[in-house]
Amino acid sequence: MNTGQALIDDVESCEVAFGQCGLWWLGQHGFIVKLGRVVCYLDPYLTPDPARQAPPLLRAEEISNATLVLGTHDHDDHIDRIAWPGIAKASPRASFVVPKLLAEKLGREIGLPEKRLVGIDEEMVVTQQGVTATAVPAAHELLDVDPATGLHPYLGYILEGNGFRLYHAGDTCIYEGMQAKLRRRPLDLALLPINGRDARRLAANCIGNMTYQEAADLAGAIRPGMTIPAHFEMFAFNSLDPQLFADYMRVKYPHLSTCIPRHGERMIVGEKRSAEVPL
Q: Domain 4-257 maps to which CATH number in 3.90.1150.10, 3.30.360.10, 3.60.15.10, 3.40.50.720?
């Protein structure tokens, strides 16, 4: 398992062919994604907490290589308000992408300048060095919409670049029309939460996600090249054995590939393609 500067060095030295992405799991729903030379941080959760079962792999000030930092929603384990100013300082050219509904508030409270914070919502796109991020609504138990603006507080993102397309679901349950949105273009990779939900957790204000069976069925509906589960190990009260997901996928969708990630370990996902072949 790589941690600290060794992890940053591994990301920097990783050469990603066209049609592939480099991937490192940071724990919870956090990932580093490398598309060509562009490095994206998705929901990096870096702040120490006694309740964590997995320690942070990085300190914010070590992240000097970020091009895009994307936060799916304003919960501490997804938009880490303590860590983001340190990332912004260490990666002065990085842009931070958040739900548009929350952008002004987050910028003011975190202290990020307006020019570095990009708010997007459904079907809105941000592009940085040839990599695009498109917002997909997420239903964090419910598909919430702000009645005044019609904007969503919870998002997932589709990242495209280097001949590769991936979906980071954020925290979500399945909702009507979700599969249709995700089937519009083939996905090489889907990163899905599997920790589930129940009355005990909801009563304690722990808002839930897809069960591992629902995540498997979503993968079965959208048929990505690879499905990787996440959001299953960080907190004892909100955890799940990911082998349940892997076994269910193997039995129900044996034609689909899946892999349980390991903290800080490099994965290369996708197949090499000719740069002339459109995605």
A: 3.60.15.10
Strands 30-35 and 20-27: antiparallel
Helices 242-252 and 212-222 cross at an angle (nearest 10°) of 40
Tokens of 50: 């006694």
DSSP 225: S
What would the pLDDT profile of 188-206 be if each residue is shown by its tens digit? 999 999 999 999 999 999 9
Structure pTM? 0.96
Residues 125-146 have pLDDT tens digits of 999 999 999 999 999 999 999 9
Residue 138 β-bridge partners: none
CB atoms within 10 A of CB 226: 20
Locate tokens 């940071």: which residue? 26
